[in-house]
Amino acid sequence: MQWSAPIARWYWTVARNINPFADALNMGKVNAAIGYPAGAEDGRRCDSFKNAIRYLTGSVPGGIIYTHSTALSGDTSRLTRAQFDVLAAR
Predict the structure, then answer these.
(1) DSSP assignment of 23-67, as one string?
(2) Among residues 30, 37, 19, 41, which one has the least CA distance to residue 64?
């Protein structure tokens, strides 16, 4: 338990630079960066995100991107940060 938050923080900021995707509401790239494969689960995860945003702020902003790009549609969990960054830039 003591290492959960530090490991998550490291992964979110060092192993993958996920904050810019989250700030841009690009949930497809957030999901890909975390290692979720593209598919039917994207919609469920994005609905959960919208519910959390609605709960925390009272509304849901427009412009949320729900789907993975084609370049990130496969298994991204084993990619290095450099490899992921190249694919995410497409």
Answers:
(1) HTTBHHHHHHHHTPPSSTHHHHHHHHHHHHHHHHHSS--S--B-S
(2) 30
Per-residue model confidence as pLDDT tens for the chain (90 residues):
789 999 989 988 888 889 999 899 988 888 888 887 777 777 788 888 899 999 999 999 988 888 777 778 777 878 888 888 888 887
What's the rounded Cα separation, in Å, for the pair 54 and 70? 29
**Cα–Cα dist 69/44, whole Å:** 17
> Among candidates 35, 13, 6, 21, which has minimal Cα distance to 66?
21
Length of the chain in residues, anyone?
A: 90
Contacts of 41 (CB under 8 A, 6+ apart): 31
**pTM passes above 0.85:** no
73: Cβ–Cβ under 8 A, 6 or more apart, which residues? 37, 38
